[in-house]
Amino acid sequence: MVAKTVIAQYVKEMRKKYKLTQVDLSEKAGVGLRFVRELEQGKSTLRLDKVNRS
Known about the structure:
Elements: H1 2-17, H2 22-29, H3 33-41, H4 48-53
Helix pairs in contact: 2-3
């Protein structure tokens, strides 16, 4: 799905821009590290409703 890859790229770029690690981002967003990793990979089974909550 194109939307997930666009979101994945954007999240990763913004995380790096603000010099955050994946751990930092997961803590600030209140989600698990695994979620951040899967989000940045554009995993097809990722639940986007969880992205909207964060």
